[in-house]
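Sharing a chain and its predicted structure for anyone who wants a worked example. Both blocks are below, sequence first, tokens second.
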Amino acid sequence: MAVSLGMTPAQALDTALRAVEPHPALRAAFRATLTTGGAGREIQFDPYAPPDQQFRITNSWGEDPELDQVVADWKAEGQADVRLFADDLRASLGEATVVDQGPSLSIAFRHQIRPNDGPVDVAINSQMIGDMTLDAQTGHLQEINYCIERPIKLQNGTVLTNYQQTYTFGYSDRWGVSFVQTYELDARGGRWGVAQTRSIKVALTDVAFGLAGDANQQLESKPAPYSPGLTANLR
């Protein structure tokens, strides 16, 4: 059965994936609010500002060293706008199955381990399954959910009993690109019988796209332009 766009589910999936694989020169300015249980940080990123002013913390409340580390790691990446694009999604899709072709097209898949995954990533991703929702009217990516199938014991002895990530997406008609609007992580686990939980939410606002304007823009960490390759084996 074809979705309402007149495409098969496989064609709809490929169209949605193309929209999350932007040209390497595409840049984005944005604001983001990161929150945990009792703390929050607001940041602003502008790729066209002087290097020492591109990534700024504009507001902060509550104490949370782990949240501060998340912000510090994001800043250290240099090109903070890379996180707005799910441009490695195609490579991470394994076997995929159409679950529902109602008002939204729902596709379930098994997360595929990638060559650049570290030991912790491999341990988690090997047990990760996911589902994505496409708008049946536009074909745009709406949401991706990931979770682990069963508890995982990491190398440091921590047993991860729950690990779930949720991304929601917006779409720019002008630039023809789907981008992350919110991200949520919920994790539960522990060692020696002591359980811990961890939750974080990131909301992105005021997203404005543009093109890298000169040779001083650092593009090395951006993906290569889209070239057709293997997509998930959709069933």
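Comments welcome. The first strand starts at residue 26 and ends at 35.
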